[in-house]
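Translate sequence into structure tokens.
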Amino acid sequence: MALQRIEISARKDIAAETRTYERGLSRRNHDFSQLVVSLSGEIEMFLQQEENRLGSDRTIFIPAHVEHEFETTQSGEFMVFDIPRNAMPNESTIKQPANVRAT
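Result follows.
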């Protein structure tokens, strides 16, 4: 996985990285939330046993402590925002993943 860190001036505690994932399956669980935006390619995300395809028209929000898996069949590049718990507005109400179509 190739990482490139980008500083966000408005919130320095939110990390934004361009990540390139190679083929394969990976399982994760974090103590922070994530927002994943596809820049190129596609990735299959499994969030709470629900399959989601992340491509150029989708953004996925993953709340803290939600186990997620992803699998790629081809290389792709994604912008991933790691959002600490203290940066989330009333995080106690945000417990479900969201798969949002970009407009």
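Note: The two ends are 28 Å apart (CA to CA).
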